[in-house]
């Protein structure tokens, strides 16, 4: 017997990349919630799309792109997403096309595009997420630029150097900096590039 229930796709995303990937507990929890919503509202789950990556505006999101193609192509009747801010950070331009094509559910915010009053809220929340993303990106870039100007090293210290203090993160020569200098001076003098045997592998 054919299942006559309308179709819903689930879009799941964990913003911080983790070792478990698409098997991360939070993604499984989102899927459980999505399937529960489908059962309670008379839908059958057509497909589950999973992402374990950031949703920054310049991030490549093949699963998201495929989800949008499915929705806009009429392959599903509804789209369920656990959190609106994990849907996209591109603002209204990301949500407006799907609002007029399929029913869109943002579970955490309790927003449903089939409710006329929620449509404006969805657009506003999407714009809020976009503004937050832009502000956070600006703050991170500004902070890192200032740290560089102050001489702070933002990652692991280069070979032969060490971080002076965890608070200021300025570099200083490590114990064997003299060996590094000697290697470079020898290379500048025409010798083949090779670390001394005393240097640990």
What would you note in describing this structure?
The protein has 201 residues and is an alpha/beta fold. It is built from five helices and seven strands. The strands form two sheets. The chain has a five-stranded mixed sheet with strand order 2-1-3-4-5, with helices on both faces. The chain has a two-stranded antiparallel sheet with strand order 6-7. Helix 3 packs antiparallel against helix 4. The termini are far apart. The mean pLDDT is 78.
Summarize the entry for a quick read.
Helix content is 40%, strand content 16%. It is built from 5 helices and 7 strands, in the order E-H-E-H-E-H-E-E-H-E-E-H. Helix 3 packs antiparallel against helix 4.
Characteristics:
201 residues; alpha/beta; two-stranded antiparallel ribbon
